[in-house]
Amino acid sequence: MTLKQLEVFVAVADARSFSKGGELVRLAQSTTSQHIRALEEELGTRLFDRSMTRVNLTEAGHLFYSHATKILRQCLEAHEEIRRFQGLEQATLRLGASTIPAAYLIPDLLAGFTARWPGVRLELQQGDSQEVIKLLNDNLVELAVVGGKYNEDTFYFQELLNDRIILVGSASEKFSQTITIKELQNLPLIIRETGSGTRQATDSALKKADLDIRNLNVFAQLGSSEAVRRSVLSGAANAFISKIAIKPELADGTLKEIEVKGLEINRSFYLAWRCGKTLSPAAEVFIQMLRSLFTE
Length: 296
Prior knowledge:
The structure is a single chain. The protein is α/β, with parallel strands linked by helices. It folds into three domains: 3-86, Winged helix-like DNA-binding domain superfamily/Winged helix DNA-binding domain (Arc Repressor Mutant, subunit A, Orthogonal Bundle), CATH 1.10.10; 91-159 and 269-295, Periplasmic binding protein-like II (D-Maltodextrin-Binding Protein, domain 2); 164-267, Periplasmic binding protein-like II (D-Maltodextrin-Binding Protein, domain 2, 3-Layer(aba) Sandwich), CATH 3.40.190.10. Helices cover 46% and strands 24% of the residues. The protein is built from eleven helices and twelve strands. The chain has helices spanning 3-15, 18-24, 29-43, 59-86, 99-116, 129-137, 181-184, 197-208, 225-233, 247-252, 281-295; strands at residues 48-50, 55-57, 91-97, 120-126, 143-146, 155-170, 178-179, 189-192, 218-222, 238-242, 255-260, 265-274. Strands 3, 4, 5, 6, 7, 8, 9, 10, 11 and 12 form a ten-stranded mixed β-sheet that branches.
């Protein structure tokens, strides 16, 4: 059974004539008859009662007609939905982002993106970088913005911008704004969880300085940059945190940077997607927008 056979069947039923029905679908009467005959043979029943002047649906034909028209209507709707999807008139982009991009980068991009593509709905899922990469691996999101590279054989990473991770303390607390690596070991610290890009970059930099974070004076481990920021502001401890996440506090002086001699922590944020995946039109324009913004 083919869609063409259904189309011919509905045309003949509506026109109550093989010749007129064939004209509706631009087929000769003989070809129209062949389509109907093949359909009846497959179904094992007659769909039309033929006479010299007209054809009428049999009871089986009436039953089949309701299904045939529904199938053809759904096909037209599917074609129309794909057309709107390709034209970005109606599409959903599923995006994953680690905590810093989700809180400080993506929201700033929304106004410009929705103004250019109002038909695209953005669905954002947040987690630490490893959690977001897992969402990408499981096809639960199409694109991801993360603070580190993972499984480069599986995912393509496009660098967007650089970030510094700095040690900070509350301005309400007394501390030296320049310390040594040795002094860092005695400083009470709050750290991010293992899967975060911030933690990954911090661990890597400490390792290069012959330090293991497990040997530092870790006061607490928290699951988001916002939780770390608020804890430091309260005076609970000091912390390594993204400079992007605390720009306002550094500007107004409520948080102060503590320079650690011989320790510099830099990392990048990346846009990621699965290698070999055919991206949706919505994903393609989102990538183009990010490349344009961050190249500039």
